[in-house]
């Protein structure tokens, strides 16, 4: 059964396998594993001594490797604690054909020497646990970072000694920060929770991470998860390290958001707008309108927050005072257009923004309004945008006004359309 496995709960299995290696005879007629009574202090002292005499060969040679059996058994009988070391055969080489890196081999004796399987405390070491678990769980492919490549040497020796086949290995290159160093916290978000809080979505993260060091041989960059499953193969994973590019990740996230239906995007966007106190509930109709309004303008879910805030706000007078292009419209009879807007609103001609079909009706109404006052194109749309939104640029005005109407109904802080018309009326009469 696929349940959580914990090495701390499998201690008896590792002890059993270690004892098996102690009872098994290798090619040299000696046990594959043996008890080592040297303490860590003695190991360190021996390394220092051999270094000082020039006899240190780069690997630790245990004095208990070839100790007389009667001496060993006497110590065991006396209750002395010991570690269990793997006896590396002389002249032994371990070779793999790594799926990513190609052929790799090691001189085991010269590289690692006899290594510990079980510490004197009875605690198994990482490489022993991994090798045993891979074998007993039927692991066929081990895909991991290149940092673990040298671990394959110990694991391979253990698997061979226990009579298990080695799995296929694929050691992938590391992900680097833009400064060329190993990716770390100082490069920004490093946890799934952090990326989620910033508005990245799972499908985009999967898409981007798969693309670090892999491609399908085409120029395609944006994939669904199903497309990745169909296209992915280990033989196209590259050896060279990849650089984590936050701007590229943002771009891919934005592409995934744009490819969503409005309802899908709204389901993701809702919690962000609620947290920002821009709506009361995540399923508010305001969220659906916001999703439609923001979709083409955002890369992260959090990017929608300032757009919705701007839609709810309104300060026409500040814009006219501080924006030269807005002030220029005053010279083009902006007051006359404002007066006509107010009259249409007071006459009940302006579409009802509380209705679901407002955004559809608004566009048609503006065209008819333009015919009535003799304006079209930029001469119509620009001043109408300024008059109703209070700024010269931004998302679709119809969506903004629909959001304002819903916010007013829900009791969310905003500048209602009626109040905007009051500002326009005061300006027209000034």
TrEMBL record:
Q: Which GO terms describe its biological process?
A: glutamyl-tRNA aminoacylation
The keyword Nucleotide-binding belongs to this UniProt entry's keyword annotation: yes
Q: Which domain of life does the protein's organism represent?
A: Eukaryota
Q: Keywords in UniProt for this one?
A: Aminoacyl-tRNA synthetase, ATP-binding, Ligase, Nucleotide-binding, Protein biosynthesis
InterPro entries hit by this protein: aa-tRNA-synth_I_cd-bd, aa-tRNA-synth_I_codon-bd_sub2, aa_tRNA-synth_I_cd-bd_sf, Glu-tRNA-ligase_bac/mito, Glu/Gln-tRNA-synth_Ib_cat-dom, GluQ/Sye, Rossmann-like_a/b/a_fold
State one molecular function term (GO): tRNA binding
Instruction: Reply yes or no: does the keyword Transmembrane helix apply.
Output: no
Q: Name one Pfam family in it.
A: tRNA-synt_1c
Which residue ranges does the record assign to the Glutamyl/glutaminyl-tRNA synthetase class Ib catalytic domain? 3-251
Which GO cellular component terms are attached?
mitochondrion
Q: Where is the Aminoacyl-tRNA synthetase class I anticodon-binding domain?
A: 264-397
Family, similarity comment: Belongs to the class-I aminoacyl-tRNA synthetase family. Glutamate--tRNA ligase type 1 subfamily.
Q: What is the protein named?
A: Plastid glutamyl tRNA synthetase
Q: Which organism is it from?
A: Euglena sanguinea
